[in-house]
């Protein structure tokens, strides 16, 4: 005995199947957009595991160094990337100053370097006006900005001796959890732990 379906029932089933397919495709499209957004953000900003190229530089004080590379395997760099016109960067300066002092007291092998994305003249004027004491490098080259993915500022980047990013964050440093993450990334796994690390931790 064959089951005969009415035309209206067949049409209803077909419409239901079509609707289910449309819903599934809509959900998948939304997921793809989220995944693509994450991929674009990862490509546009530095993150743990990415690398920066070594860039020879000279600080405002005349000292030579290489951004993204340290003289020994037991050193680490923390880069503070900002501009002279960014108000969020200006608001972050006190937190950076406290972080610099704390890290230097905890372990002098951690070197904090300010990277200003402006001309040397503007960089020097800004550093003097704000009494910045950490080493400052002017990096006005657009090519270097792209290589360091410095489209968004302020950035705080912790690097291994070979230029691999241990931690990176964009924005003002107002959350204790973010400061603690920077602190841990800069100091964890360095040989010979220092007792000063606990005492000098940024609150």
List the keywords.
203 residues, alpha/beta, Glutaredoxin
Explain what the structure shows.
The protein has 2 domains: 1-44; 55-199, Glutaredoxin (3-Layer(aba) Sandwich). Helices cover 44% and strands 18% of the residues. The protein has 6 helices and 7 strands, in the order H-E-E-E-H-E-H-E-H-E-E-H-H. The chain has helices at residues 7-44, 87-106, 120-129, 142-147, 176-187, 196-199, and strands at 55-58, 64-67, 76-82, 110-116, 136-138, 155-159, 165-170. Strand 4, helix 3 and strand 5 (136-138) form a beta-alpha-beta unit.
What is the fold's blueprint, element by element?
Blueprint: H1 7-44, E1 55-58, E2 64-67, E3 76-82, H2 87-106, E4 110-116, H3 120-129, E5 136-138, H4 142-147, E6 155-159, E7 165-170, H5 176-187, H6 196-199
Parallel strand pairs: 3-4, 4-5
Antiparallel strand pairs: 1-2, 3-6, 6-7
Task: Briefly characterize the structure.
The protein is of the alpha/beta class.
How much strand?
A: 15-25%
Oligomer: single chain
Helix content range: 40-55%
E-strand count: 7
What's the helix count?
Answer: 6
Order of strands across the widest beta sheet? 5-4-3-6-7
């Amino acid at each position: 005995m064959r089951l005969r379906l009415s035309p209206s029932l067949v049409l209803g089933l077909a419409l239901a199947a079509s609707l289910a397919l449309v819903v599934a495709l809509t959900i998948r499209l939304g997921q793809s957009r989220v995944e693509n957004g994450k991929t674009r953000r990862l490509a546009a900003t530095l993150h743990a595991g990415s690398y920066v190229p070594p860039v020879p530089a000279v600080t405002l004080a005349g000292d030579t160094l290489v951004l993204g590379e340290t003289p020994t395997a037991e050193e680490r760099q923390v880069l503070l990337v900002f501009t002279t016109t960014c108000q969020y960067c200006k608001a972050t300066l006190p937190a950076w100053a406290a972080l610099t002092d704390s890290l230097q007291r905890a372990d002098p092998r951690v070197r904090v370097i300010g990277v200003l994305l402006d001309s040397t003249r503007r960089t020097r004027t800004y550093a003097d006006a704000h009494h910045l004491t950490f080493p400052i490098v002017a990096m006005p080259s657009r090519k270097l900005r792209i290589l360091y993915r410095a489209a968004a500022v302020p950035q705080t980047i912790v690097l291994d001796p070979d230029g691999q990013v241990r931690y990176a964050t964009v924005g003002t440093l107002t959350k204790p959890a973010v400061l603690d993450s920077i602190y841990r990334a800069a100091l964890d796994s360095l040989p010979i732990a220092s007792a000063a690390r606990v005492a000098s931790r940024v609150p």
